TrEMBL record:
Official protein name in the record: Carboxypeptidase Q
Keyword Transport: no
Organism field: Hymenobacter jeongseonensis
Domain of life where this protein originates: Bacteria
Keyword match Signal: yes
InterPro entries (UniProt xref): CPQ (IPR039866), Peptidase_M28 (IPR007484)
Length: 463
């Protein structure tokens, strides 16, 4: 027993030394994160950057002059912030234009007309004048397929499936209702319909129609597709029950023009120890054309730039290269994300992680992570460091649309989506109400600091 005592003492001493070292590391990291949050809350620049982007430039649909202005602004802003290198990545993007304001009316048997709030879905064809037809209401594609041909042919198909408000995460409800917006026009045209009317993807009851991208099948006739506000959808549904023979009149002048040249904007801080290892953080610079693109995704753009600025402002030189990327064309094509991934693969780059902010600039909760269990476990150790800032929820989930193409192109160890409190997000998502006044300064700056903190940890410890 006596001979075992020295060995036991050595193991105990080694364990104590390791614990002391871990404590010092945790203290160092804790102080570093505190400095990041102090800088963000006392001297943060996200809010004023967003004010300029939304107020001076405004909506930034791909292919528009405003999108090009945003590219130039993003490049200049990162140069002024002192990034080591700022450059553009050329990418061809779709150029869809809405045209004159859309008009829609419910027409009863006696000719009474009721104007309703609606908007064209992104990518839709126009109506070539006024389009007037009967209406058939469905809640699902399966219900549509079961209807007899005579009930659908020559009519508008009205897709009226609402958000499932029993779901805790509105994003899940958005995903489950989204097929009718994305593919409703295709399914309607397959049955001989003349157009598609889609309930806006939100649980809010108001007269703000929600646009968003839709698609066509080359093998199926293209028919116009419009989103009704939720109040308009409720009204149409109610009137159809009383009068199944009513008609709907739609007029839209939207069209798709030839592709335009645009750019991703990339700002880079070179790593001090492992410059070949890259951490990407980004949001999408384009937005829909109805509002100012504030929460979607102006907040993600300014947070991504600010996350890198915060590291510099607090004296931290990242060990791994950090890139802030302002992606172009997430809303109606994801051309920027695809091109960024293509170039990363072409240049044989090593990306250890990519972070995206595209869920609004609301109060931080943490991050959604696409990765293997071992990486998730490693990141979970950082939870206590993020806990004082309420950004410590590290859960399995979707990383983001812009960074998604990296998954196959260069296989980063983790795709990470910034997770803010999303309960209010889909009230204004893709609407005229997505404006600067809906963004809270503290919530926005806290989000940027949360992202900077995760980048600090990723850069220091790797994955």
């Amino acid at each position: 027993m006596a001979s075992l005592a020295p060995a036991h003492a050595q193991r105990a001493a080694k364990a104590a030394k390791a614990a002391a070292t871990a404590s010092r590391v945790d203290l160092t990291d804790s102080l570093a994160l505190r400095k990041i949050f102090d800088e963000a809350l006392l001297r943060g620049q996200s809010y004023e950057n967003l004010r300029y982007l939304t107020g001076t430039i405004g909506a930034r649909l791909s292919g528009s002059p405003q999108a090009q202005q945003a590219v130039e602004w993003g490049k200049l802003t990162m140069e002024k912030a002192g990034f080591d290198r700022v450059y553009l990545q050329e990418v061809m993007v779709p150029h869809w234009v809405r045209g004159s304001k859309e008009r829609g009316e419910i027409v009863g048997n006696k000719g009474k007309e009721i104007k309703v709030a609606l908007c064209a879905l992104g990518g839709s064809v126009g109506t070539n004048g006024k389009l007037k037809a009967g209406v058939v209401e469905v809640r699902s594609f399966d219900e549509l397929r079961k209807l007899p041909e005579a009930a659908v042919k020559g009519k508008f198909v009205f897709f009226n499936r609402p958000f499932d408000d029993a779901l805790i995460e509105p994003g899940t409800a958005y995903g489950r209702a989204g097929d009718q917006r994305r593919s409703g026009a295709i399914e309607a045209a397959k049955r001989g319909a003349v157009g598609a009317l889609v309930r806006s993807l939100t649980s809010a009851r108001d007269d703000n129609p929600h646009t968003g991208n839709m698609s066509y099948d080359p093998a199926v006739t293209k028919v116009p597709a419009a989103a009704l506000s939720t109040l308009a959808a409720d009204q149409l549904s109610l009137l159809l029950k009383a009068n199944p023979g009513l008609e709907f009149e739609l007029q839209m002048e939207c069209q798709t023009l030839p592709d335009e040249k645009s750019y991703n904007v990339v700002g880079e801080i070179k790593g001090s120890k492992y410059p070949e290892q890259i951490i990407t953080v980004g949001g999408h610079l384009d937005s829909w054309d109805l509002g100012q693109g504030a929460h979607d995704d102006g907040t993600g753009v300014v947070q991504s730039m600010e996350a890198v600025r915060l590291l510099r402002a607090t004296g931290f030189r990242p060990e791994r290269t950090v890139r802030a990327v302002l992606f172009m064309n997430e809303e109606n094509g994801n051309r920027g994300g695809i091109e960024y991934a293509r170039l990363a693969a072409l240049n044989k780059e090593t990306h250890i992680a990519a972070i995206e902010s595209d869920g609004g600039g609301f109060t931080p909760r943490g991050f959604n992570v696409e990765s293997e269990p071992a990486i998730m476990a490693k990141m979970a150790v950082w939870g206590p460091l993020l806990q004082p800032y309420h950004a410590n929820s590290l859960t399995a989930g979707h990383g983001g649309t812009d960074i998604g193409p990296l998954k196959e192109a260069v296989k980063p160890k983790a795709l990470i989506g910034y997770d803010g409190d999303s309960q209010r997000y889909f009230d204004i998502h893709h609407t005229a109400a997505d404006t600067f006044d809906k963004v809270n300064k503290r919530e926005l700056e806290l989000g940027g600091a949360s992202m900077a903190s995760l980048i600090y940890l990723l850069s220091k410890y790797g994955l």
